[in-house]
Amino acid sequence: MKFVFSFLIFLLLGFPNMAQVPTQAEKIYLSGTDVKHPKVWQFKVSDGRKADVWSDINVPSHWEQEGFGTYNYGRDDVSFGKLFKYADEQGCYKTSFTAPNTWKNKEIWIVFEGSMTDTEVKINGELAGKVHQGAFYRFKYNISDKLKWGQSNLLEVKVSKMSAEKTVNNAERLADFWIFGGIFRPVFLEIRPKENIDWMSIDAKANGQFKLKVHLNQKLEGREVIAQILDKQGKQIATTSTIIARNDSTALLQTNVSSPALWTAETPHLYQVKVQLKKGKELLYTTSEKFGFRTIEIRKQDGIYLNGVKIKMKGVNRHVFWPEYGRATFPEGDLTDVKLIKEMNMNAVRCSHYPPDVNFLQLCDSLGLYVIDELTGWQKAYNTKAGEPLVKEMVMRDTNHPSIIFWSNGNEGGHNKDLDNDFSTYDISNRTVIHAHHKPDNAFNGIDCNHYENYYSTQKLLADTNIYMPTEFLHAMHDGGGAAALADFWELHWNAKKGAGGFIWNFADEGIMRTDHQNIIDINGINAPDGVVGPHREKEGSFYAIREIYSPVKISMKELPIDFTGKIPVENRYHFTNLNQCTFRWQLVKFKDKADKESGYTVEKSGIAFAPNVLPTEYGTLQLDLPTDWQTYDGLVLQVSDNQNSELYRWVWKIKSNETLLKPLLQISANQPTTATETDSLIILKANGIAVSFHKNTGKIIRLTNDYSAKLSFTNGPVLVSGTASFAEIKHYPENDAQVVEVQYQGDLKKVRWKMNANGWLEMEYEYTLNGKYPFAGISFNYPEGLVLGAKWLGKGPYRTWKNRPQGITYNVYENLYNNTQTGNAPWIYPEFKGYYANIVWMELSTMEGKFTIASPDDNLFVRLFQFYAINGATPHPTLPIGDISFLDAIPAVGSKMGVSASEVKGLGPSSDLNTLEGTKKRKLLFYFGATPK
Fold it and tell me: Where is the Glycoside hydrolase family 2 immunoglobulin-like beta-sandwich domain (predicted)?
């Protein structure tokens, strides 16, 4: 036994390779792993709240969110000019850690994922290296020679909000977004063997060609580097190796993989490369990277090609932002954003205006989004000295993400052209560099990214020399832009040879929870409410409209044709996916009655349709095998899911006419005969406890009562919202068991005929003539908004609509309690209650005075509810019709940001033009001003 023990000792001492020596980098977090899982350090700030007092702070975080210092929005200097003084604060951090003796003879790095802005790092009182300048980039220091082994080591970090380098401030802090201070991304130690691989750059082409450039931490002549490529099951499918040449610290490895599964946003297939560094048979170090096989080509004067297929970007700009945490992040937040972007049927995201956290890019890799990774430079650029190390840090960190299609060298003039060639220095795949700009004639590398062109200038650009891919368009301030006019722009890009799609500004309202003001969410006036979702990702109407417009299964059928046989024309707007990989489910439904406690519909019958064989960008037909009695149901629902069973969109068509759908609602028994009473100034019609008074000098309703309310304040109408109308005469007469009031007008409003039926339903038939272009058309009444409790309706919803944003709403029975939400502002309650509602069959308003119902047997009725706007500026936009409640045949378009003029709205394209009206319009409305009909 003694001999065996001695032999084991000999083996361990004589052959150290047999001991369990770590060959991978060991990561030890000094901070928390993310903002929701922080660690506590000591901290003090030089100015603002809690100035010059040492206390505790969570790391990572922004110190403003922890109750320190002062808030700044980046453009405060623009708002306040010379009167404004930036918060030029410094934050001092302290923490300690132990360096065990086992770390001796290893390489120890301290890594910062992101710190705003200038960051000075000391270990045991000694500078770790040069002060880092630039907030959004990973940087690190080798601190091996500064540690005390087996003892506690002091880490001190001084972070200055304002950089000592003016161009860093110009690029990052004088920008049109919130700016903060502090260590906002994780800090960790990386412990590596003395000989190791520093970083790697991968180029994996669609034809299976694989290149790997390995950067060693030092010159390691004679060492062997081995790369193994593994598929998603972990099976090795290829291997390659090389020996490090003399006086070299890099190695280039190449191999080929036969018929790899290709990475696209539709098919995000990932592989892994496992890399070993060896000295003879001794394994020195091992690391790995995920990657995807794909080939990106910019074919000038043609388009962007991925794996030989032309692709178009359905993209959005995204800030890294969450109200409670600012730009500090957490994995669940990143996942939420990627899922929401894909739920809108988008395929691309621009990381505006800085590289995001690594986790977000990993999700784009694995779930499938095309990415523009951007060097910060908001209208002003880093100088070359400051910018060169930041390009290096960005590309070294991000180069192996297959989701990244472009590098962006700054935004809107923030381009230092001296840095353009630096990107390829660290990216072996040599991705194209773009300039995200806002000036014409500033195309770069064959791609014009000009911002905020209108529809007609976009047409010209698409006919010009360069590929056109606006990296910002359709500014989504408040309820403007986003999806408004998007369908017109998307059709331009989809059908144009050089149209490459674009990126809507912006994903989410950038609202910060102000810890200095009772935790209100501050969007800095009109600077930051630019999202298609709210600060906590509350979905605005544009979210669902974008989802329909960008659906890769395009269905243009607006209503069921009279001779419908189950055939639905479809277009495949995928780039790589056949429609036979999708699932098509149909349902025949019955809409809930108005008296039902619940909204929605009940599914009576359902089935799955055979998915048609339609290749990408081709057209085909979907056949629904409906039962023979399908016409007896209220509506037809078609729900389409992708090959991951995620819903792409859900269409609902009415089967029955409005008149048929209304029949059950109108069947109310009469309790007493209809009467007509005339006074000096009034004609009063009464039936079933409801009395309606018309003024004899105007023809307008001026008073309403019923058995349940002494007064119902629905009055002062009808008023023509466009055109002219002057009262001419009024008369009344009986008609069977009903009473009729007929009003004649001069001008564009011709005649209004009121008929009170014995059951209390009041019919209104009217006609008007308009010829020309108008923002809206129809009639209005008054009703006090403050008395309204809610609405329930059968029609399209649940969101309001605009002339140039009719998408994203479907037929159903909806119910919405009153709210005073103005889109993009607190309290972010969606859907908004006030607005234009489309294709109303019936609507019941609940008020403090009781309920009343409006209906129409005619199609295409818009109901406008109360006072609202889309975009708030010096003059809220767009102008509203007169009155409080309107019944309209035409509604206005909406612009895309503050300062919208009529010409700017028109410039957004055909659907944004004024309504062209010709001839006479006739419509019938039905009112019930009594208790809820059952």
Answer: 204-294
